Every structure is written in structure tokens, then in C-alpha cells.
Amino acid sequence: MRGKYMVSVALAALFPMTAQAQGPVVSKKDYQLHQRLVTLDSHLDTPASLDLPGWSIEDEHGVHSDYTQVDLPRMKKGGLDGGFWAIYTPQGPLTIEGFRKSRDFALLRGMSIRSMVAADPDNFALATEAKDAAPIAAAGKRIVYMSIENAYPLGEDVSLLKTFYDMGVRVSGFAHFAHNQFADSSTDPSKKPRYGGLSPLGKELLKEMNRLGIVPDASHSSDQVLDDLLALSTTPVLLTHSGCKAIYHHPRNIDDDHLKALAAKGGVIQMNAYGGYLKALKPNPERQKAMQALMGQMREDAKMSAEARAALLAKRQEIDRLYPETDRATFDDFMAHMLHALKVVGPDHVGIGADWDGGGGVVGMEDVVDLPKITAALLKAGYSEADVQKIWSGNVLRVLAAAEAGRETKGAAAP
């Protein structure tokens, strides 16, 4: 399993790409429609880039040079209005010290997101309610909702969630690659459940999410956690970046029965573009060994200088030259998951959360510049403009509005 210490996706230009893998040709008409839509991605790991030495969200970068996938110029080119910018924290030890370190890291990452907005109010705006998205987009600015991936930084104090809510967080997951104090992960190395779903503390966390008006996110958590969320949550559940087991049977994906249960409770699955979850990939042991060594260097130098980062990027490019990934998921693989979900639950319960800057990206859709291809593919598949608008933002905003309504009915204080 590749962690999120890696510098995003691989170098796709090192091997041939077929015309089919490139995705559909986007006509001028489809591109103009795409630019008119309000487009949101529900899982942007781009906040990790904000703290890289010498990197700026204002500048156009290249997926084939520094491996990042989202910045302001590329968002404009690809017609991405914004999304949910994630506070991601790697899973660490379930100890007081581990909780403290991860809490401090998460708070600082949240402040990095807020600082990005404050530094350029002409191009970015913080959004805290569903109704904020349309006017921000109409003003030509990028929409910045905030989310938490992995609730581990909350330690054993669910009341700390209010601090993140006040910061702007409106979506939160429970676990990540391993079980934690709140929930079972779908990919824990033990391959055995710890709680059989949510822990007692996880159920308390869910209550606090419902009280505050934070959307529960079941991505990365086990199927049993999703069952608990659907049974216990007073508002709809979101899968911010997941796929379909019917297309590829991976623990990170969900089966059709869970898809239908999610939709029956008003929830939405946001389609992931993480290649290892879209199809079975051929092993590349030499590359894997070299990448693990590189990630080890990155962990050891968490506060690296610009020079050190440049050296690591050079090593990454050398790995790509010596051990290219010749078997990667394609745009067609991504669309296979999306079209299957649409077939099972319809356009009211499907959205997009590609996992940009966190491992997402496929052949034919390497960064956000390629997003108009999704709109073109959906139109080609027979979905209407209204359907496509729901998929791009209407559905996730409906779930957020439902969480807000739940907060208001409980009398919780609004921000």
C-alpha cells in the first residue's frame, strides 16, 4: 500500500498511451459547458503542497516535473472551482504523545489552508455552508471548504472537533490506512477488525459531527463502519473518495448493496481516481523498493529545504527513468467505476473526489487540467447537463445542506 508520503503520482510520459486511454476528445461546446458548471472535488490533498519549500499555489507547476496536480492556474484551465481541502494526518501510535503530535500537525495544516485563502482573497474564498459555493464561483474565485481525513488527531477528546469546526471543517472521516481509536480501517495491516465497526468513542464522535453539522465521511473505513454510520447518523453519509467493488474488488471500494443502502439514506459516493483502487496492477518490485527508500528519506527530512526537496525530486525522476510504471489505471478505468455507480444508484448519489495530490490520477487524466474529460464522457454516456451539475457539485452540497439542517434542528450554535 502506498502511503501519502509519496510526492503524488508517477511520471506517465515515460511509456506509450493509447488514444483510448487518453479519454474522450473534449469539444469546444463541452468545454464551455464544463466551465459554466460549479465544479467541486470532495477530496483535495493539495494542502500538503502548501507547506513545500519554494512551492506556491499561485504558480503553474507540472505533474511531470514536481508531481503536484493542483494549483490556481491549472484549476482555471481545468475548470475546477474548488472543493474540500483535506487536513490529512498519517496514522500514528494510540498514545498521549502520538495524539499530541498529530493534533498540533493537524492544527497547523488547517492554518496553512486558511493562510492560503487570506493571502489571496481575490482568487480564494473560504466556504462554510452549502449556499456559499455558487456566489464564490460566480465571483470567479476558488471555493475552499475544509475537511479532515483521519480523525486520529482528535485523540480521545471528541470535543476538540469543535475547534476544527470553528476553523472551517465541514466534513470528517474516521480512520485511514489502519485502525484507530474511533473506527476500523478497510486496509489495516492485520486484516482483522478491532471493533467490528465504530468504537464506542467513534459513536460519540459521530454524535458530535451530527450536533455540529459536520458530514460523516466513510472513505477508508471498513464496510462495518459504513453500516454503523448508516444506522446511527441523523444526516446523510458521504464517501469522499471511493470506488466500486463490482468493478475491482478492493477493500477501499464498496459493493452494490452498500451503494444502495448509502443512497437510500440520502448519501453520495464521490468517485476516486487512485489507480491501485481502480484495477489490479502488475507488481513492480524494483520500483517499489526504490520508492520505499525514497519515502524513508522524505520522512526523515520532514522540514526539508528547497535544495533538499529538489534533490529528492531528482531521485524520484531517476526512479521513473529506471523503473517506469508500465501498467497504470486509465481514464477508462476511472469512468468504469463512475458509470457503474451511476447505473446502480443514479445521478443523485454520485460525485467526484479524485484524490488529487494524494495518489490520484490516471493515464489520460494526470492533473486537474484534464477534468473537462469527465464532463465530456458523462454527456457522451447520455447524462443531461442537470445530471452532470449534480455529479460535479449538487449532490455533495445537498449532503452538506442536510448536515447544516440537522445542526439547526438540534439548536447547536452556528459559526
UniProtKB/TrEMBL annotation:
InterPro entries, sorted: Metal_Hydrolase (IPR032466), Pept_M19 (IPR008257)
Pfam families: Peptidase_M19 (PF01244)
The entry's keywords: Signal
Signal peptide stretch: 1-21
PANTHER family according to UniProt: DIPEPTIDASE, MICROSOMAL DIPEPTIDASE
Protein name as catalogued: Dipeptidase
Native source organism of the sequence: Sphingobium olei
